[in-house]
Structure prediction request, 613 residues.
Amino acid sequence: MLGIGIIKGMAVTAKNFFGSFVSKKWLPTVQYPEAGNTITAFSRNIPFLVYDKEDSPLETMRCVACKICEKECPPQCIYIVQEKDANGKLLKRPRIFDIDISVCMGCQICVEMCPFESIKMDSVFELSSENRFEGLLLHRENLLKSNSYYHQIHPQEAQEVDDRLAAKQKKAAATAAATTPSTPAP
Amino acid sequence: MTTNIDQLIVDLCKWVAQFSDDYLASNFPVVAQFLHDYPIITNLIWIFVCIAPLMVVFLTFFAIATWLERKGLARIQNRIGPNRTGPLGLFQPVADGIKMLLKEDITPRSSDRLAHFLAPVILLVPAFTILSLLPINRNMTAAAVDTGLILFFAIGSVSTLSIFLAGWSSRNKYSLLGGMRAIAQMVSYEIPLVLSAVTVIMLTGSLDTSRIVSAQQLSSWVESSNPWLQILGQIVKWNVFTPYGFCGFLIFFVASLAEVNRCPFDIPEGESEIVAGHLTEYSGFKYALFFMAEYVSAFAINGLTVTLFLGGWSGPNIRPWGSDDPNALLIPGFVWFFAKMFFLMLIMIWIRGTLPRLRVDHLMGFAWKFLLPLALINIFVAGFYYYTPWYIGWPFGFAVNYACYELLGKLNRPTTISSKRTYHYAT
Ligand code: SF4
Ligand code: SF4
Prediction:
């Protein structure tokens, strides 16, 4: 019959309409903020910096201030200044690591590019601030989050990263062990 | 004066008129004399008295309809819809109104300022004027005109002009395109709209809207003493239950969707193609006026659909107990009228939640190649139905209409559809 498609379509929308009154399946809306939020393990929002030991974030942060992410970031929202010790010698650590989250578009390219598994994506989203300039510029201290937090928000990914790092370390140790004897003693 | 709740408002009106006449004549003879000498003043006052309730009622309906639309569409799309403004979001229309009023009213610098200002006003006037031609209840037509139906179509088509005015005066290519589309669409759909109403005029023999309604009541059953017969008598003769009426109702409803720019015929606004069509350059209260006019004219055309095909203010109704007035009704007629009007409005919302927007050429093809021939055939069916007894006319009329419907569908199918499409850019 001509026009049966329209009737079928109307039936589908009617099913959705009445279904939304009876079942959660047809009405997945969550009443944020009263009913809390539903962050899944797949949520990716802005980047953060990983450190390993809970008690010493600055000492165990993985970032070496290589500035690869700064160069790769499409909207150029990362700003890094390398740290120097008292003698003016460059340290493998950033003194300033700023991300302007009003500019960051969450593309995750910094994460892809970092060779040291140091910058990862966070899943926080309640980032609004009363000051739209300084309030949205996150500094090193705001960005540093522990590896256990990473495990908490993205368990599977964090485990993979840990395995990778462990394998790398083992390999480095193995090459070190293999090369050490061959080097002639000074 | 009858003791009939159905006629309560009408009686009240008459009583107030009588009372004020007497009161003025006895206490303020000068005023009474003045009103007598200048009947135009009296008429103007009466016009205002008739129009004011219409405005109030239909503006309330507009608010309810926007709320219903937002909630209904939300539910269709598995959302909740507005729920922060008052219980169930009921005050959302109020919030919308305040927002619209507080917004800056921008007129583009290069626009035709006068026309840009006039367009929303011109749109609103016919939308409200045609409301006064609808018989909301027995003896409750704000302007009881003998040729009400013609007047309805005549005034109603002014809205085309104002939409084009809006599109043209904005000096914006999208607005102009929207205006041109609106003209093309509305002029095309006006024809099947009127032609499907012609069948009702033929069978009723009158252009008077209240006579069209009373022709849809079986008076011998309504006036009988059996309540079941009274209920049935108010229903069985609705035009929609006849072959010409059913077909006419469908054509009329579809064409009315196009007339009031509702989905799926909202290509003049087509926000995915031309920003917002004729509304592009409108903001603030003028935009709200457009919005309001759209809903009010949707109500008006639904009211006409109800009048023509769904029995107007008659519905499953009985006489109140102990009443000997054959015309008395337990539930006032306007309740049925408004209920049916809202029912059609809900179907419009449902359709909006279901169907995608048509393409421009499909839209024109649908009007000229499908609705128009069907409406013409329907006129012949109506003539045939008139001259034959119902047990022949009814099945035969339905069969002919259905056959033509399928045939037109077949004829309208593109003749060659290549079974395999080739894509150049997509794989
Ligand atoms: S997620 Fe993208 S935009 Fe944001 S800091 Fe990383 S590279 Fe830059
Ligand atoms: S986050 Fe990674 S890529 Fe960016 S500076 Fe630190 S180590 Fe280099």
About this structure: Chain B has one domain: 103-411. Residues A 63-69, 80, 113-114, 116, 118-119 surround iron/sulfur cluster (ligand 2) (CB under 6 Å). The CA atoms of residues 126 and 349 of chain B lie 23 Å apart. Chain B touches chain A at residues 72, 75-80, 350-351, 353-355, 405-406, 409 (CB under 8 Å).
